[in-house]
Amino acid sequence: MINETELIKLVKDLYLGDKVLLTDIPDLKLYMDQVTNFIDEKLGNLKRHENDKILTKTMINNYTKHGILMPPENKKYTKQHIILMILVYYLKQILTLDDIKELFGPILKDMTNTEDDIISLEDIYSIFLELKDNAIDEFENSLSKNIYSIKEKVKNLDNENQDLAQLFLIVIMLIAQANTQKRLAEKIIDTYFKNN
Fold first, then answer.
1. When comparing pLDDT for 12 and 101, which is higher?
2. What is the DSSP string of the chain?
3. Would you place residue 8 in the very low, low, confident or very high pLDDT band (cuts 50, 70, 90)?
4. What are 51-68's pLDDT values in tens digits?
5. What are phi and psi of 11, to 5 degrees?
6. pLDDT on residue 45
7. From CA 100, how far away is CA 84, in angstroms rounded?
8. What is the pLDDT of residue 97?
9. Which PANTHER family does the entry link to (predicted)?
10. Count of CB atoms within 10 A of residue 84's CB?
11. Distance from the first to the final alpha carbon of the chain
12. Alpha-carbon distance 178 to 181, whole Å?
């Protein structure tokens, strides 16, 4: 039988290791190697496979060329650059670089003049971390309810098939949820951010 506690622990393990607080991000300007080392140190545990890359020099250059990241200042990257790179890391798991560019458009249009910002990049990042915390709590509750529902639907199968059926249904339920959320995010970008 599927152990719900083990699945919730997996969720917590995934989440606990990926939190880079605003105070963790240096206020100093860093060279590209320092940036990639910092990001790898802070988010390296998110790698699915040992050889996966969180952030490379090529990625940073591509983000800059693509207009997702503002150019470095004298080959150095600021706290704002690092915040954007962390946000890009999360966003690119779901969105295309074109979608991320559209989403970042209002933020990047004038990073040099922060006086007329509706909301600062630091505030955006802090709110993002808070929303992530809330989403994990809500996700755990939702997962528990869905596991219960799945168990009820397959309870008449023999034990060996029951476990496999439950795991299969949990995976496709997670994919269905992720797909719905991805499509809604794309729709919001298409409706409110394109050509803004």
1. 101
2. ---HHHHHHHHHHHHHTT---GGGS-SS-EEHHHHHHHHHHHHGGG-SSTT--S--HHHHHHHHHHTSSPPPBTTEE-HHHHHHHHHHHHHTTTS-HHHHHHHHHHHHTTTT--TT-SS-HHHHHHHHHHHHHHHHHHHHHHHHHHHHHHHHHTTTS-HHHHHHHHHHHHHHHHHHHHHHHHHHHHHHIIIIITT-
3. confident
4. 999 999 999 999 999 999
5. -60, -45
6. 85
7. 11
8. 95
9. DUF1836 DOMAIN-CONTAINING PROTEIN (PTHR40056:SF1), HYPOTHETICAL CYTOSOLIC PROTEIN (PTHR40056)
10. 25
11. 51
12. 5
What does the mean pLDDT of the chain come to?
Answer: 89
pTM: 0.87
Where does the pLDDT of residue 106 fall: very low under 50, low under 70, confident under 90, or very high at 90 and above?
A: confident
What CA–CA distances, in Å, run from 126 to 80, 98, 115, 138, 165?
A: 13, 24, 19, 19, 39
Using CA atoms, how far residue 134 sits from 34, 120, 138, in Å, is 31, 21, 6
Kindly list the domain boundaries of the chain, sorted by start residue. 4-193
Is the pLDDT reported for residue 21 higher than 90? Answer: yes
Task: Enter the tokens of residue 66.
Answer: 């693509």
Which among 102, 171, 101, 93 has a CA at the least distance from the CA of 132?
Answer: 93
